[in-house]
């Protein structure tokens, strides 16, 4: 029984971390049409920044700053935002495919840095002993994980609420207009670049936040945790749940993550040990299949619909011509 | 304005007086839309100058030109298709407080207040353009004529001093056309300057003074309805001339 509970807690924490990422991607893609295929890169920047700043001293790489949890979390978000600015400023003025190329590039670059800049990231060995907030106050592992889950759900709800508010504000309305027709938007005075950049940076910061929380939760990070497949997962989550819908992004994250972990267990149970290493491929195929089915039968995802962007409440229809 | 080897607008020079409805006519492919795009900043003219209220605007991007009070509509309407008519209108007002990310967090009351003001204004404009009953419909569900009205509505939301209208009457049924003509003259009386491209001669001859005639990228003549009607070169441009374009 406690086995199931502790597994569910573990599952929910990771589902929340994925949800934060797909919320960030939803702002970028769902609301702005930005094709970011380097999600994992921003996730990694958040995770490594947090790990480096929060960890106690360790041999072989920079560290030992022992920053408090909240400070390291905020620094991780700022670092991710800066990386997003560096990627966004030169590419978001250009045609949209440049952003795609640049974000693939940043994902790969960050992985290379993680693997090779040993003095900074610990190289292939990674960073150990990443602290968890308030862990001294808990005696049992499960008790602490429940606390962590509560904390992360509060953060997730806060992110959800903030995003809902901002995409339904005049700011979000301009974002949507630019996504719909940039030429028309510029003819009514809205410059696409500035809004795309804002959306890209804010979305990336959410991914960085997810990375920082992830690092803190699993206490140990290494380059193998930041493979391109993670970007694929987050995209699948957003599309299955319903791009352009924040609740859809969260729902999709939970569903796809459930499917991913369950199929992982099935692979372990049925595949002979010689084929176990290929199990990941089976999972990717399965998610790909689900993705195709959703696109066929519900092209806008499970929750894919949109509400009006009217800040002052529901719109009053003018009657009587 | 030159596209590769093609001079789409060549040696065209004119002034538009304030508070006029200036007509711009000419056969298809004459370069009228290209001229509009050059004025509105979509293209940077390859040579020449464009002045608006004494200030050079050639080379500025479209969104900057909009903020100078010069607004345009498109020959083929470009409403934001997934957004409702109301949203299409609400996007427009320049420099809204709530367009800044932070103001939505730190000055929500101000944003809300402004939003309510714009909302009332949008309803009023929609009513004026007979769009009141479709305010909450996505623009993609509207007829072509209604989409043209949405474009005019968007232009009005900016309180512009000048509007460039590219064929507001094309593909619009006669009763709607009469309405559009009414609205344009009413707005003109309120002090807005118009530059109007139109193929419907009745509309142009009734509404516009002066009228500019373009053909093959050049300005053929400028004059009032009487002068345009009686100028043999105009008829020639429409009937004879180079059998060039349909656009
Ligand atoms: N973006 C463009 N690139 C190349 N040629 C163009 C472009 N836009 C318009 N043209 C050409 O310029 C000429 C004038 O077109 P246009 O301004 O649309 O005419 P009008 O609006 O008077 O019918 C046409 O020959 C057209 O084919
Ligand atoms: Mg034209």
Report on the structure:
The complex is a heterodimer of chains A (321) and B (247). Chain A has 321 residues and is an all-alpha fold. Chain A has one domain (2-227). Chain A is 69% helix and 0% strand. Chain A has twelve helices and no strands. Chain A has helices spanning 2-30, 39-54, 69-91, 96-116, 118-121, 141-167, 170-180, 182-187, 192-218, 229-241, 246-270, 279-297. The radius of gyration of chain A is 20 Å and the shape is globular. Chain B has 247 residues and is of the alpha/beta class. In chain B, 40% of the residues lie in helices and 15% in strands. In chain B, strands 6-7-8-3-9-10 form a six-stranded mixed beta sheet, with helices on both faces. A two-stranded antiparallel sheet of chain B has the order 1-2. In chain B, strands 4-5 form a two-stranded antiparallel ribbon. In chain B, helix 5 (108-128) packs across helix 6 (144-157). The longest helix of chain B is centred in the middle third of the chain and has 21 residues, at 108-128. In chain B, 44% of the residues are buried. Bound molecules: adenosine-5'-diphosphate and magnesium ion. Magnesium ion (MG) is lined by residues 32-33, 75 of chain B.
Strand pairing plus helix content of chain B: what structural class?
alpha/beta
In round numbers, the mean pLDDT of chain B is 91
Characterize the overall form of chain B: globular
**How is the main sheet of chain B built?**
6 strands, mixed
Mean pLDDT of chain A: 90
How many strands, which pairing sense, and closed or not: the largest β-sheet of chain A? none
* Count, helices of chain B: 10
Number of domains of chain A: 1
Binned, the helix content of chain A reads 55-70%
What does the radius of gyration of chain A come to? 20 Å
- The CATH level-2 architecture of the largest domain in chain B is identified as 3-Layer(aba) Sandwich
Write out the distinct hetero groups bound to the structure.
Answer: adenosine-5'-diphosphate, magnesium ion
Task: Give the helix tally of chain A.
Answer: 12
The H-and-E topology of chain A, N to C, reads as HHHHHHHHHHHH
Which regions of chain A contain 5 or more consecutive residues with pLDDT less than 50?
307-321
Number of domains of chain B: 2
Oligomer: heterodimer
CATH class of the largest domain in chain B: Alpha Beta
Sequence of strands across the biggest β-sheet of chain B:
6-7-8-3-9-10
